[in-house]
Amino acid sequence: MIVAIDGPAGSGKSTIARALAERFGFEKLDTGAMYRSVAFTALDRGVDLDDEAAVDDLARTITIRVVPSAEGPHMTVDGRDVSREIRTPLVDANVSKVSAYPGVREAMLEPQRAVAAEHDVVAEGRDIGTVVFPHADVKVFLTADPRERARRRVLQRHEGEAVDLAALEPEVAETLAAIERRDALDASRDVAPLVAASDAVQIDSTAYTIDEVTDQIAALIEEAKRA
Ligand code: DC
């Protein structure tokens, strides 16, 4: 069984995919983390991000792995754990450029499909239902109001801290601008842009909790299992 969840940054894909994977005993495939790993490694190794051929070459030659661990999966590049490094604002700001290169996307396809060849999978990204798994059993396109997405990202960043949302307003505004910039780049690129598959179920999560959306998608999975 393949469950495809696509949508823009901060729409809740990761959290919901994790909850669904746990509930059904599926593997979770975070394809954004793979593009982030390419972007981070290019920055780290001093590869010019404007040099498309060099970035393509890097994407083809590095080995990106998802290593399971007690506190959740870790991403490694050529054996080095980069789980934390791929979540920085610098990577946020550069990942769309790298993920727009056709050669990079091509290099990521095979490892993404390999996961589903061996396991039931909940895959999340931008082109899962359109390009990676066009025959997925369940396809969801998850959206939410951009301000709500920015608010969620900021709260996620401050998880575990006593936060005053009013004081975080400048950070929310800055995050909103970054999210809108990234959405525009992801949606306007030529190859595998961020668009809903024609047969995807569209869910706007703005007014729902994570649990409510998870339940909605779980119902779709149950239905697909019965089919
Ligand atoms: O989901 P995320 O924010 O971690 O994704 C990081 C970037 O990777 C995002 O800006 C677009 C790109 N991406 C993509 O092009 N295709 C995917 N399937 C997943 C992510």
Q: Give the structural class.
A: alpha/beta
State the end-to-end distance.
Answer: 12 Å
Radius of gyration: 17 Å
What value does the average pLDDT take?
A: 93
Helical content class = 40-55%
How can the largest sheet be summarized? 5 strands, parallel
Shape: globular
Number of strands: 8
Q: Enumerate the distinct ligands.
A: 2'-deoxycytidine-5'-monophosphate
How many individual helices?
9
Question: For this entry, what is the oligomeric state of its chains?
Answer: single chain
Low-confidence stretches: none
Please give the order of strands in the largest beta sheet.
2-6-1-7-8
| SSE topology string | EHEHHEEEHHEHEHHEH
Q: How much β-strand is present in the residues?
A: 5-15%
Protein architecture, described:
This protein is α/β, with parallel strands linked by helices. Helices cover about 50% and strands about 15% of the residues. The protein has a 5-stranded parallel β-sheet, sandwiched between helices. Strands 3-4-5 form a 3-stranded antiparallel β-sheet, covered by helices on one side. Strand 4 and strand 5 form a beta hairpin. Helix 1 packs across helix 9, helix 2 packs across helix 4 and helix 3 runs parallel beside helix 5. The longest helix has 20 residues. The radius of gyration is 17 Å and the shape is globular. Bound molecules: 2'-deoxycytidine-5'-monophosphate.
